[in-house]
Amino acid sequence: HIKGAFTGANQSREGLFSYANTGTLFLDEIGEMPLSMQAHLLRVLEERSVRAVGSNREISLDVRIITATNKDLKAQVKTGAFREDLFYRLNVLDIRMPSLRERMEDIPLLAKHFISTLSVQLGIEPPSYDESDLALLQGYDWPGNVRELKNVIERCLLLDTVPGQCLQGLTTDNPAARDALVSKEPISKKLEYIEKQHILKVLDEESGNKSAAARVLGISRKTLERKVQLWEQT
Predict the structure, then answer these.
(1) What's the chain look like in SS3?
(2) N or C: which end of the chain has fewer CB within 10 A?
(3) So what's the architecture of 16-90 in CATH?
């Protein structure tokens, strides 16, 4: 929109299409787009131009559009949930990404990647595991695909105290057994352990300087000293 186009429009704001002009625009989850918005998108694709709200000037576009969806758009066209004309306008080159259960050989590699990156994000030491632990993950069909695998690995890192145990439990067909496996110890205890490991790591990085470590951690030196004293007593 342009400045003054409506109440509160105190400055002009460039739209995504004009911002991506001469480049590429990625539209994720296109199957979730409401029909009313589909009509607007179709007009932009057919006319290759947009007009900012409040402006009379058409902006010519040269944008490559890439879309993604986990929906069956052909089925949605039949039910009327997705416009047929928009479907054929978008479906110039169709690239199907196989589901995770169709490429089971990728699971150990992806699991290793998530264990490594998430351990860093959570500030914990990566757990010990062997190839048999990761191979067990290939026994689950992963309806949520890579996102579910990532979430499962993160839950393992947060809740697992015995290396490999969480991974093994998550592949069972019994949901109750899976839930019981990851709840053998209160989560508060496990989060306390993660906090302790993170604080000790920061202290080590600051060569034992508690004042510097407290600044990095965003807590007072007194709070840090109290935590360390508590750990020394247990």
Answers:
(1) CCCCCCCCCCCCCCCHHHHCCCCEEEECCHHHCCHHHHHHHHHHHHHCEEECCCCCCEEECCCEEEECCCCCHHHHHHHCCCCHHHHHHHCCCCCCCCCHHHCHHHHHHHHHHHHHHHHHHHCCCCCCCCHHHHHHHHHCCCCCHHHHHHHHHHHHHHHCCCCCHHHHHCCCCCHHHHHHHCCCCCHHHHHHHHHHHHHHHHHHHCCCCHHHHHHHHCCCHHHHHHHHHHHHHC
(2) C
(3) 3-Layer(aba) Sandwich (3.40)
Low-confidence stretches of the chain (pLDDT < 70) are: 1, 159-191, 193-194, 234
How many C-beta neighbours within 10 Å does residue 40 have?
12
pLDDT at 181: 39
- Gap between the Cα atoms of 95 and 25, Å rounded: 17
Task: State how far the Cα of 119 lies from the Cα of 228, in Å rounded to an integer.
Answer: 23
pLDDT at 233: 76
Per-residue pLDDT reduced to its tens digit, 79-138: 999 999 999 999 999 998 888 989 989 998 998 999 899 888 888 788 777 777 777 788
Which phi and psi (to 5°) does residue 183 adopt? Answer: -120, 20
Residues 100-185, CATH architecture: Orthogonal Bundle (1.10)
